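Proteins fold reproducibly. Next comes an illustrative record:
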Amino acid sequence: MVDATVVVVDVVVEVDVVVVLVVVVVDVDVVLVVDVVVEAVVAGAVCVTGGSSGARVVCTPTLPTSVSLVTSTDTVPHAAVDTMSTRSPATRASRAAIDRTVPVARLPVRSPTTDNLSRVSGAASSAAPAGRYDNHPFIQACRGLPHDRVPVWFMRQAGRSLPEYRAIRGTGTILDAIADPDLSTEITLQPIRRYDVDAAILYSDIVVPAHAVGFGLTVTPGVGPEVERPFRHEDDLARLRPLDPEADTPYVLETVRQLVAELDRPLIGFAGAPFTVASYLIEGRPSRDYANTKAMMFANERLWHALCDRLADIAISSLQSQIDNGASAIQLFDSWAGSLSPAQYQRYVFPHSQKVMDAIADTGVPKIHFGVTTGELLPQISAVGADVVGVDWRVPLDAARERVGHGTSLQGNLDPTVVFAGAEFACEAARDVLRLNDGHPGHVFNLGHGVMPAMDPDVLTEIVKVVHEEGTVRS
């Protein structure tokens, strides 16, 4: 009988089949694979039975845990260990001993509760390498740690404001461009080369997952997301099946992999928060008043929560897949949450955004949460589990810090329209943001919303220089 550390490397649900690879670290020199069959899924834990030994193992999403008996002697493939959690010193030290590949076993399901396995797939995400750029100013600022310069990046930094983007974008919708990994990779890299910002953000869109599962959504140039048959009734829930990132959005994952191979700085992955994505599905197109969305919230609360729960699961799957493939941080966009009162947000939105944040907490990557006109919601946006709260330009940065507390980092919050006034005015406005932050280490400089298509990229370049050269960070 031996004690060992168990790490679930992969859990893949197929039709009547579950693929499970469990790695067992016995000591610093030995890493074993246990052939397992899923026996039951209870309260988020996976109970598996060893195929050769009959040993019963209980693995929860908060791995590692303990197992009493291991008899298999197969070694773990090196590639698998590279994607394992590095929490255990034994796991890290064992890599030198790994020299051959073991195929993942495909085993029949022994439990009727396979519909719950999507909750367990988060255990695999804990195997992803977290904190790949732990010493980078952007990551340290997200964590409120001392660093050597104020990091800066811009929402929508990749896109229509750049002439190089317009030169390669081609025809079709943004969804067509996103579906081309080579093109999406190049578009993501363009602002890195031009501005020397401290982080790249994946070129994608918050409606990609809903589009990918076949809800019937497109993005119309000049309009935005449009839905042929907006969400109205309980039957429409069937149109929002679970997202399988490998099957539904392989192009997104390939783009992430290509970017991680190219970049020398963090990559930010992202997803749309349940409320904002729901508003597009219900309204059928961008809205000013969200009347249909709020009507469903108020008149059919049960259906509203069912919809948001589905969208939270989709967001979780999308974010975890981006993290698993190398994203160093994530941002949850709740762009239109500012249309709600604090009481409405707390009742109808908070639980679902919190679910998303909680599900990826164990990955270790910084979690940014952003919405527009959310000044009155900042304490709640922070409380859902964000490490960093994005602040728009309507709330002074020092006031925002008082609202969210000094233990939470802030991102923002230059008024985007100052860019149209030219470099001199915009740079002085950037200095005002830096002054209000007063050197607090938990600050990532950004605009209060996204880059606009007509903005002069040269002005943004000057803003980056000011932030890097004049920004200070207190130790």
Observations:
- The first helix runs from residue 78 to 82.
- The chain has a mean pLDDT of 79.
- Residues 86 and 92 are 6 Å apart (CA to CA).
